[in-house]
Amino acid sequence: LESAATVAPGEATRRNKRRQKPAAAASTATRLASCPRRVRRAAILAAVREVTYEQLLRQNQLWSKYAAESLGRISDAAAQVSVMVQLDWHGARVCVVRSSCASHAGAAGLVLTETRRMLLLVSDSRRVWVPKAGTTVEVALPDGQRGGGLVVQCDASARVSASSASTT
User: Fold this and answer.
1) By percentage, how much of the chain surpasses pLDDT 70?
2) How far is CA 67 from CA 25, 105, 126, 134, 139, in A?
3) CA atoms of 159 and 89, how far apart (whole Å)
4) Strand partners, 103
5) DSSP H helical segments within the chain, as ranges?
């Protein structure tokens, strides 16, 4: 009580309001990471609605060059799978081989977006969200890798740990 301030009745107390400095411009990913899940999902859905299949085909050409450089001279199938799991799949041609949800088995398309738990595949006729957990996919290798145009099967749920370690 030695340092207590006394205010006479009727005397107004003045509160010290501190003005907060505006935060530095953060990236969209940083701002979305701190938002509620429904806000992040709405932002993703709004962005992916605008992308056409033709634009994604151009992305696939770029992805093929990227994957060819990343895989380099790797000839061992197991090593290719481990590298393929670590690659960025945006634009990759993917086909679902097995899924815990029977309706997703056989879904094929180009990867438009990837979240921790889902892949959005786009074909010329449809868009489908595929859960990674319990899903095995085939990722088409670029020409010149393993005889050209072959596929590598890998567990999409392995991407859960790989993508969460790189994003957050």
Assistant:
1) 65
2) 33, 25, 25, 25, 11
3) 10
4) none
5) 28-33, 37-49, 53-71, 77-86, 158-167
